[in-house]
Amino acid sequence: MFEKIWNNHVIVAGEEKPSILYIDLHLVHEVTSPQAFEGLRLSGRKVRRPDLTFATMDHNVPTKDRFNISDPISKQQVDTLTENCREFGVKLYDLNTIDQGVVHVMGPELGLTHPGKTIVCGDSHTSTHGAFGALAFGIGTSEVEHVLATQCLQQSKAKTMVIRFNGKRKPGITAKDMILGLIAQYGTDFGTGYVMEYTGEAIRSLTMEERMTVCNMSIEAGARAGLIAPDETTFEYLRGREYAPQGAAYDAAVEEWKALCTDDGAEFDLTLDFDVDSLIPQVTWGTSPGMGTGITSSVPVPENLPTENERKAAANALEYMDLKPGTPMTDIEIDYVFIGSCTNGRIEDLRAAASVARGHKVSSRVTAIVVPGSGRVKIQAEKEGLDKVFTEAGFEWRDAGCSMCLAMNPDVLKPGQRCASTSNRNFEGRQGRGGRTHLVSPEMAAAAAVQGRFVDVRTWDFKSEVKA
Amino acid sequence: MEPFVQLNGLVAPVDRVNVDTDAIIPKQFLKRIERSGFGQFLFFEWRWDEQGNVIPEFNLNKPRYQGASVLLSRANFGCGSSREHAPWAIMDYGFRCIIAPSFADIFYNNCFKNGILPIKLSEEQVDDLFDRTNAQEGYTLNIDLENKVITDGKELRIPFELDEHRRQFLLQGLDDIGLTLQHESAITAYEAQRAASANA
Fold first, then answer.
1. Under an 8 A CB cutoff, do A11 and B183 touch?
2. A76-128, pLDDT tens digit by residue?
3. Interface membership of A155 toward B (CB under 8 Å)
4. Sorting pLDDT into bands at 50, 70 and 90, what band is A202?
5. Which GO biological-process labels does this protein carry (chain B) (predicted)?
6. Known binder of ligand: residue A342?
7. Which of residues 409-448 of A touch B (CB under 8 A)?
8. ipTM of the prediction
9. What was the pLDDT predicted at A183?
10. Sequence-ordered alpha helix ranges (H) in A56-159
């Protein structure tokens, strides 16, 4: 599949040098674009295809009182995006529109993300869009400028890897557990230099939103892009969306999309297997997404790890995380819960978290916030009454944005606070200096909010019918 | 972009695996709309404590590593986000070359756009360089990109590999937007062909 998309977009094939690859969709946000627009201005260049370029603001946006950005530098960055979009004729979904949201939630929701497209954004979680069978990857600001100016990128072809998710998910096991489990098993750099294609029965049975969760964290495995072959689930998701082809054009597009799938017998540079049958809910204990384990396990003992570098890294991580080796994961108490982000801020994630929260109360030791991935997710959740479920349980119901995934807005952990987070990175200081992040699924996060510590959601007391 | 041909520089070690872009430049400094001035925030939370006091144990705060231009580190350097603020901070601080066993893809690519040379060596070679750097105050390396070799003025001589296109790119300090725009007619033809097939 990667080969097909690649070949469809190569304008000038490079032998000894990179190829020139055409880009079908360029998503832009406020943090990684100001210097790129400034570069265009300095060189007197225009945006070549404003019609293929879409912008939103997400990283700096407050989730309370959102129009009042108190940090003047944040405000300047948001205002700069508005001015740049106006000057260069780029469509902007700003805070006044219901489509505004985390860029990787917004794109698919608008139907901008299609199978077979090449998609870039100055953001490493652009890999999310690979869930549709699009070749989608993050780029730096210099390349943002390059794409704005030329609608192309100079790219060397990546190697290909296939990951076969074998077996079936047991109840309580989420897409987040699949990707966290994969990274815990194989590490945070096994995907470096590769585009990863996810296959297998357990992948086929995922919804579009679950597939996005898996592809989103490809970058945490080192891969710039993850891919899942499009199928009926993909086509159904796209049907009728604003920027999806409509009517006869849609039917024609589906035929084209079907032809993208990897041919039987296609060769990959590397094949890996992952066992889903034995997977249990995952929690990270360290400061790298690969430092994770099952909820029924314990914090590892660094001395027992195989290499000197791993022992050192684990010891550093446990010191930062203030965890003792051998502590059962279910004994770890938390202070904060964040439900949201481009990994887990979609409507199905909120439904899943709400099903756990319904009828329970957030622990008195915990502050818990729910941040919808976009304005549309927020409205849908409110239609379904999920906001009430959350607020009645003691969660705060916020406005859309990246929020505490990287804490560029006012949602920041205090030093020493421990957070169960549905986001994608548990790096030191990621959610605030001295803050301690444990990555989990939305269900596990909601359960932790209620109990004040991690708990195995498979044993949860659901208070009413769980929506599928 | 400033070309990179040769560098003779003091080596500073940061002995950690998976040095991520949040550690290199924390998010609170990503709000600036300029490309310059990020060096003062490099490794911010490792250089200063929460009260703003210098953390003397961190290598970049030690007098012996002041003025370093070669950064030595461990595997998966630059993992995490796509923020180009990371190489901007590294460059602005004064580093022109990073040596590690492996780099994250996006970070690696971003380095070349900014005239920074990332060099991949084997774990053993990197171990050896850590030993030498720790053992000898003022340890410097000569990085010769023309001949793809690292020397230390004594017996050490490490040849390194680098994609030829990337080497030329750094040696000549090329502008890749300019290079792509040399293919303007091919891009226009591709767009026309796509538009035609969409309307067919």
1. yes
2. 999 999 999 999 999 999 999 999 999 999 999 999 999 999 999 999 999 99
3. no
4. very high
5. L-leucine biosynthetic process
6. yes
7. 415, 425, 427-430, 433-434
8. 0.93
9. 98
10. 72-88, 103-110, 141-150
The answer on A320 and A213 residing in a single domain is no
Work out the pLDDT band at A465, boundaries 50, 70, 90: low
- A307 contacts on B by Cβ (under 8 Å): none
Encoding tokens for residue A199? 């296959």
Number of domains present in the structure of chain A: 2
Residue A379 is inside which H or E element, if any? Answer: helix A375-383
A76 and chain B in contact, CB less than 8 A:
yes
End-to-end CA distance of chain A: 31
Q: For the domain with range B6-199, which CATH number is right: 3.40.50.970, 3.30.470.20, 3.20.19.10, 3.40.50.300?
A: 3.20.19.10
Q: Which of A7, A11, A47 to mutate to test the interface with B (most CBs of B within 10 A)?
A: A11
Residues in chain A with CB shorter than 8 Å from the CB of B34 are 35
What local confidence, expressed as pLDDT, does residue B200 receive? 63
Interface contact A408, partner B, CB < 8 A = yes
- pLDDT (0 to 100) of residue A17: 85
As a whole-number percent, the residues of chain B with pLDDT over 70 amount to: 99
Alpha-carbon gap, residue A213 to A179, rounded angstroms: 8
pLDDT at A468: 41
C-beta neighbour count of B27 within 10 angstroms: 25
Asked whether residue A402 is marked as a ligand-binding residue, the answer is yes
